[in-house]
Write a structure and sequence with these properties.
The chain is an all-alpha fold. Helices cover about 60% and strands about 0% of the residues. About 30% of the residues are buried. This is Cytochrome C.
Length: about 160
């Protein structure tokens, strides 16, 4: 069992990690929305942040002893650990593909980086319906990968995050 001080440190580190991922996603979204100027180095750094903080790293930030109040992480994470880990690992797979594309980022946004009119956000709700075409994330455009990562974030938060006072 983790001592109260250790629990607090884990929760604080987890919250900092979540804020870094959110800022990174916001940077990439801002670039693709035209709210931020395209900057290949900023894109690479943001994609790498998401990659480094998702998958197994994300799972490790949620030990059972740190769940529940006063943390924003619900106790249900432990009860539905396989589902939680599947979401985190799916996000990690997408983030790995995103980071790989970012490492090869051109000097400007190209058409093949955009979702285009043929790719919807998954054809389903935010709660997990995935298109069959997503079998190989390396073949998806950067913008679509970001949207799928954000869907995973939304799915996880809607099920496993609680508001704290």
């Amino acid at each position: 069992m983790v001592a109260a001080g250790g629990r607090d440190a884990i929760v604080e580190a987890r919250q900092a990690s979540m804020k870094e991922m959110a800022a990174a996603a916001k940077t990439i979204a801002g670039i693709f929305d035209g709210k931020l100027a395209y900057d290949a180095a900023a894109f690479k750094a943001a994609a790498e942040t998401i990659r480094a903080r998702s998958g197994p790293a994300l799972i490790a930030e949620f030990p059972s002893t740190t769940l529940g109040a006063p943390s924003g992480a619900r106790l249900e994470i432990e009860q539905a650990r396989p589902e939680f880990e599947a979401l985190a690992n799916h996000m990690g797979t997408l983030a790995e593909a995103l980071a790989a594309k970012a490492r090869q980022a051109p000097a400007g946004i190209t058409g093949d980086m955009r979702m285009g009119s043929g790719l919807a956000m998954g054809g389903g709700s935010l709660l997990g319906k995935r298109p069959a075409a997503e079998a190989d994330p390396a073949k998806l455009p950067v913008e679509h990968l970001l949207h799928l990562i954000l869907q995973d974030c939304s799915s996880c938060h809607s099920k496993f995050r609680q508001k704290v006072q």
